[in-house]
What we know:
This protein has helices at about 10-15, 15-20, 25-35, 55-60, 80-90, 105-110, 205-220, 235-245, and strands at about 1-10, 40-45, 65-70, 95-100, 120-130, 145-155, 165-170, 175-185, 185-190. Helices cover about 30% and strands about 30% of the residues. The mean pLDDT is about 95. The protein has a domain at about 1-115 and about 175-230: Class I glutamine amidotransferase (GATase) domain (Rossmann fold, 3-Layer(aba) Sandwich). Zinc ion binds next to loops.
Amino acid sequence: MINVTVWNEFRHEREDEEVKAVYPQGIHNCIKDFLSKDEELNIRTATLDEENCGLSDDVLNSTDVLIWWGHCHHDKVPDELVEKIYNRVMCGMGFIALHSAHFSKPFKRLMGSTCSLKWRDGDRERLWCILPSHEIAKDVPEQIVIPVEEMYGERFDVPTPDELIFIGWFSGGEVFRSGCAWNKGLGRVFYFQPGHESNPTYHIPEVQKILTNAVHWANPNFIADEIECPWVPSQEEELLKETLRSR
Ligand code: ZN
């Protein structure tokens, strides 16, 4: 089983009728519902207003892949928690940042850059899959039209992705690196641009497929207890001693 925790700020859905109509149970529960169709996934949710942002040490230390949606209250996430998330990614946990989580503290910490971009609400997006051989692109069509989505434009100030899987084109003329993957420490990080809170993007089957694939891709083979930098003896000398002993 892959233990997935879906974290959501969960303020828009409670405070804004338009958003509530799209995600009555919150974005986190919408994501949980479609991920739950995959029997290999064990899914929990966590939100900003829960104790410890819903991410106690027990929850974090038993999470294989952490999904993050945040927008207006990034600053409410304590720095101490951000460091714990960062360290767990360094040890192997997968991290998936969605849409406005480009400015979330954990994502910025992982990228080590400003993560700024351009934006304009209410555009139309054509999401092009440019790396169809990638695990995240499995059974995903070459292009997905998202009738209403917020435009995010370049320059997206992140380190050059290790793998660029999707490019978004917007009817206003901009393009954006909409699906980017990085290796960070022992962990894998995926950023996915679509998913503005007032648009039903996470109800689109192809988007659900991408995020389900992303969870499998980000799932680590193992998670280390800590990152070490150990002194080691010469492998060659050890091998030689072993060979001489066996004669
Ligand atoms: Zn947005």
